[in-house]
Automatic annotation (TrEMBL):
Domain Fe/B12 periplasmic-binding: 52-312
InterPro entries, per database record: ABC_transptr_periplasmic_BD, Bact_iron-sidero_bind
Keyword Signal among UniProt keywords: yes
Annotated source species: Lactococcus nasutitermitis
Pfam family membership, one: Peripla_BP_2
Keyword tRNA-binding part of the UniProt annotation: no
PROSITE patterns per UniProt: FE_B12_PBP, PROKAR_LIPOPROTEIN
Membrane-traversing stretches: none
Highest taxon listed in the record's lineage: Bacteria
This protein's name: Iron-hydroxamate ABC transporter substrate-binding protein
Record's signal peptide: 1-18
Length: 313
């Protein structure tokens, strides 16, 4: 009888141990599903598989375009006029160039994304932090793909790109109807700031991605060099002949309008093909200077198309 009781106890212990083991395994699997390891510029980072509250520097548009909940961004990206009220519902200005740590903590992020290597040590004390390389994410589709992987939102990426292509095709038809073939037309991007002139590649906002990735325009030779390099350069009036193209896009603040008027009187400027053909397109600085994310790029499509059609004779 004693042996039978001991055997029963032993069997019960094995069953209990197996149950505990199964419970532990299930729990481990649950944990693994809740977090993933993402290989970022700052190494392997364990992040939420599905982040719910994201603080992101420089790229709130990318995150919001994929349906992510952005709870904070930097002061430069925050004014983005192209994000909807819904996309900005929980978003606050966290300061610049670094995030204000008190504000950041108050937003309770479960993921922080930054381009500032010096701040990673502080940020990761608050939440898992991913450091990204701006130079590697200059193309709209490349950056969208990167964030789709980071946020586990590949389906949202596919949906966005489908809608983007439809919007781009609609604008291309308008240009085609006016006899404009972007694939055979070159562009250059210029900006006036005080007494300085800057030229840009297609990877430094100013409508660059919208014009190349969206509408399919070709970059001038010098613009291509900037796109492959630093993204921008200060230039002088005499060197503008190197940026001549079928279309030149110029943006400036209203306070710099006088500088643009002065530039129009410059002999070098007057000799440019785009100027002679009346193909200089002026854009509102506040709408194009910094905003180059996917949603901004899509919403800029009709803005630029209409501006191009306005100057085309």
């Amino acid at each position: 009888m004693k042996k039978i009781i001991l055997a029963a106890v032993a069997a019960l212990a094995v069953v209990t141990l197996a149950a505990c083991s199964h419970s532990s395994t299930s729990s481990d699997k649950s944990v693994k599903k809740d977090t993933v390891t993402f290989h970022a510029l700052n190494g392997a980072v364990k992040i939420p598989a599905h982040p719910k509250r994201i603080a992101v520097q420089n790229y709130p548009d990318e995150v919001a375009s994929l349906g992510g909940n952005v709870v904070g961004t930097d002061s430069w990206a925050f004014p983005n006029p192209y994000l909807s009220a819904k996309q900005k519902k929980n978003m606050i200005d966290l300061g610049a160039p670094q995030f204000n740590l008190e504000k950041l903590i108050a937003q309770k992020p479960d993921l922080i994304i930054t381009v500032d290597k010096a701040q990673v040590a502080d940020y990761k004390k608050i939440a898992p932090t991913v450091l990204v390389n701006y130079q590697e994410l200059s193309n709209m589709k490349t950056s969208l793909n990167y964030f789709a992987k980071l946020l586990n939102r590949k389906a949202d990426e596919k949906k966005f790109l489908t809608n983007f292509q439809k919007a781009a095709d609609k604008e291309k038809k308008k240009l085609s109807a006016a006899g404009i073939n972007p694939a055979k037309s070159t562009i250059s991007l210029l900006e006036l700031q005080g007494d300085k002139i800057y030229a840009y590649g297609d990877n430094f906002a100013r409508g660059g991605q919208m014009l190349t990735t969206g509408l399919g325009f070709k970059e001038s030779e010098k613009m291509t060099e900037l796109s492959k390099g630093t993204g921008y350069a200060e230039v002088n009036a005499e060197s503008l002949k190197n940026f001549d193209a079928n279309y030149i896009f110029v943006d400036f603040k209203s306070v710099d309008k006088a500088q643009y008027q002065a530039l129009q009187n410059n002999p070098v400027w007057q000799s440019l093909k785009a100027v002679k053909n009346g193909h200089v397109v002026t854009m509102d600085y506040n709408k194009v200077y910094f905003f180059a994310g996917p949603t901004a790029t899509q919403k800029e499509l009709p803005l630029y198309t209409n501006a191009i059609l306005k100057v085309t004779k």
